[in-house]
Amino acid sequence: MNRQTQKRLLGIAALVVTAVIWQIVAEYVVGRSFILPSVTDVAGAFANLLESGTLLADIAVSLEHFGIGLLAAFFLGVPIGILMGWFRVADFLLDPIIEILRPIPPLAWIPFAIIWFGLTTQAAGFVIFAGAFFPILTATYSGFRDVPKVFVEAGKVLGCDTSFELIRHVALPAAIPAIASGIRIAMGVGWMCLVAAEMFGVSRYGLGYQLWHNYYLHQMPNVVVYMLILGFAGLIIDRIFRNYVDGQLLRWRAGEVA
Amino acid sequence: MSGVTIRDLSKAFPKEDGTATQALAGVNLEISDEEFICLVGPSGCGKTTLLRIIAGLETATTGDVTVDGRAVTGPDPKRGMVFQEYSLFPWRRVIDNVAFGLEMKGVAKEERRRTADYYLELVGLSQFRDAYPYELSGGMRQRVAIARALANDPDVLLMDEPFGALDAQTRNRMQKELLSLWEQTKKTIVFVTHSVDEAVYLSDRIVVLSPRPGSIREIIDIPWSRPRDRTSAEFAEVRRRVLRMIDETENAQ
């Protein structure tokens, strides 16, 4: 048996054992599905939800909220990070503002998200943006600060005359690994904000919305189903992004990427 | 004609406390076209600073540098530079590293690849054209860096201890290859090195700098034909002379 299959088998075994223990504890120790739904309760709830047919819509709506927040964070975070990382004056100007805003927990923006955007898709997107923006900004900033000096000087002696050319042809490609890992962190934070962003009822669908909705209905097995879907979807999004980055953007780093 | 003229050059680096470190003082040097010059001297004598001023990466405090009659005001592809550290862009394939300068000039893709292929051939790395720098050994990376500088067809090739990080064997091979490149391309080369052996093997003239503030202590002509025999008596004699000069100045410090 080689290492890889051994790893797989042990992983599956651990999952099975956990499920069995969960089932025993839920059924014979706790004994109340409201406090701890058992594995079979959850499986049944999952089957019901599949039939009722809103799961796909929930996933689609959540991905929309997530996509809006993340795209906004990307298109604002990367350029501002570049400005601050490359131009010292921009750094001096913006750094104090960023340092004050950054420690504010993303969920603290919920009241203003509602006031500014109403109960809309954009409001949910804004909360996710508030979580995803700073990881992308700071990663871009430090990626630019850490561009090896010799690359910049090589760019200069090879004919990059302007800051724009140096950024485009030297600093940005050199900073891509840092920016990519910033986006990964941002996706994690943004996904965590999703449940809260959908809590205040911006839509009739959404994984986060359904999680709260089923809690109010005391359908705890359904809550567990949505929890697990949130976990799996987060995992899959991360895997897809990572494969894309390693396979397309960072082939030149060949396996160094964390 | 691509001579380099350095006149009354001095360089001071300002320090935090308001004083300044004098790195170079009163440097005068005339380098003629197609000449191979090595700059040697004790550590901290400013030889790299002098090279960087010629490249336009540093500005002189006083005095000036002209190449081909034109004053140096900033970096320019007409003065190619090979750095001591590995400076290839790791995100570009070898061929696109060599073509980088031409890309900045706006040369069309097909033409710049053709030119880059020519220079890759010249440094003997055609079979690695589509590799990424991480796939190359240290010696190969520096050969690509030389090809990248040459692809811009510079008047002068400036080299800052380019073989400093290589093992002794690779280093000797690279020296031979550099001489053959120099004979084929007829570039003026200014080469900074720590190794006196390397300087005697390579150059037409060795410029020995004195310690900080660096100035020219002596210029030694080496009129012998190439390839030179490192084991010959005259080679050893010149090497000893230069080493003693550097040692004396270092101890006098």
Question: Could you please describe the fold and organization of this structure?
Answer:
The complex is a heterodimer of chains A (258) and B (253). With 258 residues, chain A is an all-alpha fold. Chain A has a single domain, classed as MetI-like (MetI-like fold), CATH 1.10.3720. Chain A is built from ten helices and no strands. Chain A starts with a helix and ends in a 9-residue tail after the last helix. By secondary structure, chain B is of the alpha/beta class. Chain B folds into two domains: 1-78 and 156-253, P-loop containing nucleotide triphosphate hydrolases (Rossmann fold); 82-153, no CATH class. Chain B has eight helices and ten strands. In chain B, the strands form two sheets. A six-stranded mixed sheet of chain B has the order 6-7-8-3-9-10, sandwiched between helices. The longest helix of chain B is centred in the C-terminal third of the chain and has 20 residues, at 233-252. Chain A binds chain B through residues 148, 150-151, 153-154, 156-160, 165, 169-170, 173-174, 176, 251-254, and chain B through 55-57, 74-77, 79-81, 83, 85-87, 89-92, 100-101, 103-105, 132-135, 148-149, 152.
Average of the residue pLDDT scores of chain B? 88
Mean model confidence by pLDDT of chain A: 91
Could you tell me how far the N terminus lies from the C terminus of chain B, measured between alpha carbons in angstroms?
39 Å
Strand line-up across the major sheet of chain B:
6-7-8-3-9-10
What characteristic shape of chain B results from the CA principal axes?
globular
Give the quaternary arrangement of the chains: heterodimer
SSE succession of chain B = EEEHEEEHHHHEHEHEEH
Q: What is the percent of helical residues of chain A?
A: over 70%
Number of domains of chain A: 1
Low-confidence stretches of chain B: none
Largest interface: A-B, 20 and 30 residues
Largest beta-sheet details of chain A: none
- Report the portion of residues of chain A in β strands: under 5%
Supply the helix-strand structural class of chain A.
mainly alpha
CATH architecture of chain A: Orthogonal Bundle
Question: Within the CATH hierarchy, at the fold level, what is the topology of the largest domain in chain B?
Answer: Rossmann fold
What share of the residues of chain B does DSSP label as strand, in percent?
Answer: 15-25%
The CATH topology of chain A is MetI-like fold
* Number of helices in the DSSP assignment of chain A: 10
